[in-house]
Design goal:
Blueprint: H1 2-19, E1 21-27, E2 33-35, H2 37-43, H3 53-59, H4 65-76, E3 81-89, E4 95-104, E5 112-119, H5 121-135, H6 146-176, H7 182-210, E6 218-220, H8 222-239, E7 242-247, E8 255-257, H9 259-276, E9 285-295, E10 298-305, H10 333-343, E11 347-352, E12 358-365, H11 367-370, H12 378-386
Parallel strand pairs: 7-9
Antiparallel strand pairs: 1-2, 1-5, 3-4, 4-5, 6-8, 9-10, 10-12, 11-12
Helix pairs in contact: 1-7, 5-7, 6-7, 8-9, 9-10
Length: about 400
């Protein structure tokens, strides 16, 4: 039993290290503070040394001291929970951004808080990157207005960041349980890592999407591009109990376009289809994606769901910016997707069904039509599969 406990503790410590999250306990009356190893790493204090509020305050920039004073005051008044974002500064000028969550343990004889501290420095760096991207959006007239794009970025990035905070809170509750629920705490740490990676992927896609002034045409194998997107969303589809069916035509003609942008459209359509089936309980949640020749030297891709459908409204309504039927949606994804497809010389449309659900399809010219100078040879197809230009 002791060996298993040591292994669990080692696994949890490694999970905290990977997630850049440390935990602590704080007995307010006595001032006793206990840190995990990861929290010592975050503050860059010598492991095992005594931790006091005064010593912590040394790391806090003067501008953030009032926030720390307020936190201590709330703890001394015995408030149940508190949450702060603050900075710490080092002698060499480096700054880290931290997110602190604390919960009062109700089963203790004295006032004691159990908490978690998440190093969100990389998140802040990402936000600064997004700010730089937003400053260049005026050049991206091929998509839509600056305001709509900003809303789209906020919507896309907020989801994984919200997941990080939620998972940190869950991990905190599991660690403050008596006894601590180590297994669930480890799982939430893994989910935190997953959401952090997802946020980084979104930022990378956004930078690739907005860093060029014009569409960078190259031969793209739409089947392979779609398979890569399916690999990214497979986990989310499984968690939402969505059954996926993919039907890709062999030797589909290559298309001419921007691989990253086309994959963004496919991802938007898949997520939209999955969300449309969120409340479906009376039938299997089936989602299909299909590629086929579209006629007139075009290639066609269709995503179909068995969700709530389009109703009696004009199908084109769903492509209007800020139109949404989701309580947590921004109504941006489909509008952006249509703009991307149209910038490729294609068309994106929606169709309702007699039965449940809806279909979203787009066609874009093959590379032979959009760029006759690029032959559809085995060598070109290999280049299109790897995404190189």
């Amino acid at each position: 039993m002791e060996g298993r406990l040591r292994r669990s503790e080692a696994f949890l410590a490694e999970g905290q290290h990977l997630a850049l999250m440390g935990n602590f306990s704080w007995r307010v009356a006595s001032g006793e503070i206990i840190w995990s190893e990861q929290l010592y790493r975050i503050f860059e204090f010598e492991p095992g040394t005594a931790v006091t509020l005064d010593r912590i305050a040394i790391r806090v920039p003067p501008e953030d001291v009032p926030m720390m004073v307020d936190m201590v005051g709330r703890a001394q008044r015995g408030e149940t929970d508190f949450e702060y974002q603050h900075r710490i500064m080092f002698a060499d000028g480096r700054i880290k951004h931290l997110h602190l969550i604390a919960h009062r343990a109700t089963d203790r004889d004295e006032v004691e808080y159990i908490g978690a501290v998440l190093d969100i420095t990389q998140r802040r760096v990402s936000e600064e990157t997004l700010e730089r991207v937003r400053s260049e959006l005026a050049q991206v007239t091929r998509i839509m207005s600056l305001g709509a794009l900003t809303a789209s970025i906020a919507h896309e990035v907020n989801q994984p960041l919200s997941g990080i905070v939620t998972n940190a809170g869950t991990c905190l509750r599991m660690l403050s349980a008596d006894p601590p629920n180590i297994e669930i705490a480890k799982e939430t740490a893994r989910r935190t890592i997953r959401d952090g990676n997802r946020a980084a992927d979104i930022i990378a896609q956004l930078r690739a999407l907005f860093s060029r002034k014009t569409v960078r045409y190259q031969p793209v194998d739409l089947n392979e591009a779609a398979r890569e997107v399916l690999a990214l969303v497979a986990g989310d589809l499984q968690r939402n109990h969505v059954v996926l069916h993919a039907e890709f035509v062999d030797r589909l003609p290559l298309v001419g376009g921007d691989r990253i942008q086309l994959q963004q459209v496919i991802m938007n359509l898949l997520r939209n289809a999955s969300d449309a089936m969120r409340d479906v309980d009376d039938r299997p949640r089936q989602l299909s994606i299909k590629t086929e020749p579209g006629g007139d030297d075009h290639v066609k891709l269709t995503v179909r769901d068995v969700g709530v459908g389009l109703g009696t409204e004009d199908p084109d309504t769903v492509f209007q910016a800020f139109y949404t039927t989701k309580s947590d949606g921004m109504g941006i994804g489909l509008s952006v997707s249509r703009s991307i497809i149209e910038s490729h010389g294609g068309r994106l449309w929606a169709e309702g069904h007699d039965g449940p659900g809806a279909s979203f399809s787009f066609t874009i010219p093959s590379s032979a039509k959009s760029n006759p100078g690029i032959p559809d040879t085995d060598a070109t197809r290999a280049s299109a599969t790897t995404g190189s230009s």
